[in-house]
DNA sequence: TATTGTTATACTCTATAACTATA
DNA sequence: TATAGTTATAGAGTATAACAATA
């Protein structure tokens, strides 16, 4: 194995472990909160996009449609999103964030990310800059 | 909210989404494979550390003892780790990787990380350097 | 009485397969 | 017949609470 391939294997291994561990910590923050991490993620996505069909939302979040069905149902039960009919295609639906959902996003994001926020404040400016760039790169990887 | 706090909130939000998405992709690679991502992670940890008690292993992986009990049981069933008695404390056990486990680590790591490896190869040298630094920072955050 | 580990139980997240309704 | 979405089912991953064995 060449040095470059070896370094990449090490990078893959390190990145995998780091991501698995941080994901675990982030999910653990959900205890006692109102909505789950997946629900918050989908809600944020809808908030940015405006309104999407369930299929579009599943594609953007990178999950299969049945997984998104459950997330949407939970958000709808909580009154945070609403469905309306698609104007031209009776099979599809349009999902959009309600006023209550918009209010909740701000509350939840700050509540759920309090732990992470605190960790980030403790870093140096340079370290935060690295994470900012890394987040963009990782997002690009995971979207492919 | 100050500009710095706002930027940190954005960073936390971006980092959270990136980590959730990459974690999902990494777990999805498990399909068709032999052991799960959690099992591989514990196995790699034991491989590096030599031999650990279940409690030590749980602490290093950042999970609760009952979660590690299940992971160890699966690895033991597969013959990849073995237990032996603790020399001085009858309550504890020593878990270590078997020869079969050592062989499997190399196979699995390369098989499981093939997807991630390919993504990393497609990046620039600078992007890989950012991820390398980010992995260290994230691991430090998640360990606290 | 304190510590280590396991068992019992439950919930989140996600997938695939099968089904329904509409195009 | 093809597409969008849901329902049914299953498995991974993890936690807390209760228990057993040993210190």
From TrEMBL, chains A, B:
Q: In which domain of life is the source organism classified?
A: Bacteria
> Which residues belong to any copy of the HTH marR-type domain?
8-140
Q: Which InterPro entries match?
A: HTH-type_Bedaq_tolerance, HTH_MarR-typ, Tscrpt_reg_MarR-type_CS, WH-like_DNA-bd_sf, WH_DNA-bd_sf
What Gene3D superfamilies does this protein's entry cite? Winged helix-like DNA-binding domain superfamily/Winged helix DNA-binding domain
From which residue to which does the signal peptide run? none
Report the SUPFAM superfamilies cross-referenced here: Winged helix' DNA-binding domain (SSF46785)
**What does the UniProt keyword field contain?**
DNA-binding, Transcription, Transcription regulation
Q: Which PROSITE patterns does the annotation name?
A: HTH_MARR_1, HTH_MARR_2
Q: Which residues form a coiled coil?
A: none
One Pfam family linked to the record: MarR
PANTHER family linked = CONSERVED PROTEIN (PTHR39515), HTH-TYPE TRANSCRIPTIONAL REGULATOR RV0880 (PTHR39515:SF2)
Q: Which protein are we looking at?
A: MarR family transcriptional regulator
Gene source species: Saccharopolyspora oryzae
């Amino acid at each position: 194995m060449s040095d470059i391939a070896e370094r990449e294997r090490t990078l893959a291994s390190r990145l995998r472990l780091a991501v698995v561990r941080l994901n675990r910590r982030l999910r653990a923050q959900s205890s006692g909160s109102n909505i789950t991490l997946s629900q918050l993620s989908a809600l944020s996505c809808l908030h940015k996009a405006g309104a999407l069909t369930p299929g579009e939302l599943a594609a953007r979040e990178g999950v299969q449609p049945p997984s998104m069905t459950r997330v949407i149902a939970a958000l709808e039960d909580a009154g945070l999103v609403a469905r309306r009919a698609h104007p031209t295609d009776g099979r599809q639906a349009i999902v959009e964030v309600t006023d209550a959902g918009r209010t909740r996003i701000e509350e939840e994001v700050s509540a759920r990310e309090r732990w992470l926020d605190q960790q980030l404040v403790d870093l140096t400016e340079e370290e935060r800059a690295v994470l900012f760039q890394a987040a963009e790169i990782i997002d690009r990887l995971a979207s492919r």
